[in-house]
Amino acid sequence: MSTHTANNKHLMLFSGRAYPELAQEVAEIMGEELVPTRALTYANSEIYVRFEESVRGCDAFVIQSHTAPVNEWLMEQLIMVDALKRASAKRITVVAPFYPYARQDKKHLGREPISARLVADLYRAAGADRIMSVDLHASQIQGFFDGPVDHLWGLPVLSDYVQANYDVADMCVVSPDAGRVRLADMWTDVLGTPLAIVHKRRDHDKANTIAVHEVVGEVEGKVCLLVDDMIDTAGTIAQAATALKERGATKVIAATTHPIFSGPAAQRLNEAGFDEIIVTNTLPIRSEQPIENLTVLSIAPLLAKAISAVFNDGSVTSLFAGKA
């Protein structure tokens, strides 16, 4: 049985099977226990979930990190929410540190889905009252869900580490492409450093789609900090690192919240020769090949603070900007 203190007897934490280690770390920080859960995958791949304690009237937080296979873990979390709703949980918060399908947030072409909106609708239909996530790929996803969305930032966790381990006087924050300039700008506000942008354009003198990288900003002799919300196959950030080194950067480090690390990511990152790659543990590191100079920081204290603030009806706003 879970043990709960008198002032939070109705708070209950639940974990899916995608990344139970993160949920366990959050629970330990909060002085709670994860609710015992029986979860099975049948032979035909259907998922079954049953909670082994009464959840009636509880304030439920369902923690699931959407690593591969994303669809399986999304379905498991939806089934967990449905089980809680049908067992009379008072309020259900989906805790998805890495929001599934976040990159499909708008239509680029006709006949495309907006899958990030579909996921929000699925959470709502299952019975979720609230969503908590870290570093949404696009801020408008907050508007896809008809209810409160707690959008937390990995920036304070990452920037505290950078400031403690590097001399920011010699640093330049770099956006790996035009789409991440806003994030890079937020970093420069925190660190007080100049900003540079790696701009990828097509070389029309050569066949097919060969990219030429232009660096806008002064990077020669600088420690260049490439920032992004995620690293998936690492093509963009690895090419950006190479371009910075060619232009005289003394060191190239990367700071990113979500370490997806799909397919060729490890090989690309290692070949790019990063001096350090700093990530958080919103997702488990499951790269088949070791990634050199990788530092993993824990996001669990931030999630624990946010869950406590939501449960106690306190302010989560300070956590949005990481000032708590």
Task: Report what the structure shows.
With 324 residues, this protein is α/β, with parallel strands linked by helices. It is built from nine helices and 14 strands. The protein has helices at residues 20-30, 70-86, 115-126, 155-165, 181-191, 235-246, 265-272, 300-311, 317-320; strands at 11-15, 37-41, 47-51, 59-63, 91-96, 130-134, 149-152, 171-175, 195-202, 211-216, 223-231, 251-259, 276-280, 294-297. The strands form three sheets. It has a seven-stranded mixed β-sheet, with helices on both faces. α2 links the parallel β4 (59-63) and β5 (91-96).
Give the averaged pLDDT, no decimals: 93
Count of individual helical segments: 9
* Side-by-side strand order of the widest sheet: 10-9-8-11-12-13-14
Radius of gyration: 21 Å
Overall spatial form: globular
Tell me the major beta sheet: 7 strands, mixed
Low-confidence stretches: 1-8
Structural class: alpha/beta
**In sequence order, what are the helices and strands, one letter per element?**
EHEEEHEHEEHEHEEEHEHEEHH
Q: Helix content range of the residues, please?
A: 25-40%
- The rounded distance between the terminal residues' Cα atoms is 32 Å
> How many β-strand stretches?
14
Report the portion of residues in β strands. Answer: 25-35%
